[in-house]
Amino acid sequence: MKFMSLQFSFFLLSGALASLLHWSSRFLFSLYFDFQTSIVLAFLVGLLSGFIFLRFFVFKKSQNSIQSQAIRYFTINMLALAQTFAVSVLMLNILQRYIEDKAISEAISHAMGIVVPVFTSYLGHKYFTFR
């Protein structure tokens, strides 16, 4: 029995790269915006890069037009944004009690928020966005 399908492996790899761009861009945005705004702006970086990676490397044989895929991708990712935002802010509120360094608590909180929607996003993109 296979542990993971090749498609799911490519999804994780593409997602990891998009998440790295998402996570690291928040540091830049945090120089100019508050934590919550920076999360949303960084999410947009991950959103665009993720669509490109998934469209061309994971779900190449989709029956939907690229416009339909983009609309569906955006819809699924608005749910992921809600998960990312809620978990990031919640974790920041918890971690700030234990970690004095604001940058570290924000980085950990944001990373935890990014990880949460991995499986829900995979299922949404496989069966809705790129079906």
Name its key features:
single chain, about 130 residues, mainly alpha, about 80% helix
Detail the topology: elements first, then pairings.
Blueprint: H1 6-29, H2 35-58, H3 66-95, H4 102-115, H5 118-129
Helix pairs in contact: 1-2, 1-4, 2-3, 3-4, 3-5
Short description:
With 131 residues, the chain is an all-alpha fold. Helices cover 79% and strands 0% of the residues.
Q: What would your notes on this structure say?
A:
The chain contains five helices and no strands. Helix content is 79%, strand content 0%. It is mainly alpha-helical. The mean pLDDT is 89. It starts with 5 loop residues before the first helix and ends with a helix. The radius of gyration is 15 Å and the shape is elongated.
> By helix and strand content, what is the structural category?
mainly alpha
Helix segment tally: 5
Largest sheet: none
Low-confidence stretches: none
Radius of gyration (Å) = 15 Å
Task: Describe the oligomeric state of these chains in a short phrase.
Answer: single chain
> What is the terminal-to-terminal distance?
24 Å
Provide the β-strand percentage band: under 5%
Number of strands: 0
User: Could you give the order of the helices and strands?
Assistant: HHHHH
Mean pLDDT: 89
* Principal-axis shape: elongated
Q: Percent range for helical residues?
A: over 70%
